[in-house]
User: What shape does this take?
Amino acid sequence: MRRDYLAEAEKKYAKLERLYHVGARQAWDGKQVLGDLIKKHGGIRLEPAKKRALAEIFSTILWGELAAWSISADLALQLEDTEAKMAATSQVFDEARHFYVMRDYLLQLDCEIPPLDGYTHTVLTELLDTDRLVDKLLGMQLIVESVAVTLFRSVAKAGVEPVISELMPYFERDEARHVGLGVLYLPKLLATLGPIEAARLKLQQLKIVTLIGWGTHLKKRHFETLGIDNNDGFRRGLRLNREVLMGMRSAEGEDPPGVLVGDPRLDFVNDWAIDLFFPRFGAVVPGWQRAVIGVVDNLSRVGDRALRLAA
Ligand SMILES: [Fe+2]
Ligand SMILES: [Fe+2]
Assistant: This one.
């Protein structure tokens, strides 16, 4: 048994080190890629309302990349195993590239960059400020990064604008490696958690997911302007996140302590809530549902203001 455990751990560490080497091989030149895409498509040609909506959504991503950059630098410093340190170091390099490419793209859009909303601000500052490595790994690598991957896919799929559509797969490929660092390394840290810490971490996970839900609600009209269906995005996002978290299950199929993996048998509850709050494009929405959505819209704005004031 013990030998099996050691062999399993060694395999995981080899995979962590491989993330670094793959990262080095797949490193792309952001200046060149963005410059070539802009040349290929003759600039970013989009009506002003859509430009503003893109700026609203991608400014959130811009600050998310900046936070991911700092958090991966924290991880590179604090993780003890050198293989995990290598994977985190490679991530620092990626996130710096994501940050400047997104900044340059937003500058090319040539419209004002809006301030960060209260919900995203709360999630990112908490992840930056905590000294708990498990919170950073679970929150950033496994939740925020998988939300980012879902968003990148939605934007590329909606064909909003060819430069951003062709840029997204470059980001997505890097983000998949960052999720890999969390999946491979987090179980080792989680194994040391006591029951109180495990319960606290589950609450933290719920809090992050709830804040992201409210933040998405706040930006709903910008997604609609761009023709991005949040209903589809949420369904895919929740399933992707569960798949990622399931990757941390033990060989016997046990959930790691401190993580809410979710149960596919309960998908119908999630789907019902998604259909209620984010009806599909073109769906017939009865009056009572429109009223519920209106209340939630107002609440999302009140919450945003309150969180911004508290910041
Ligand atoms: Fe990134
Ligand atoms: Fe990332």
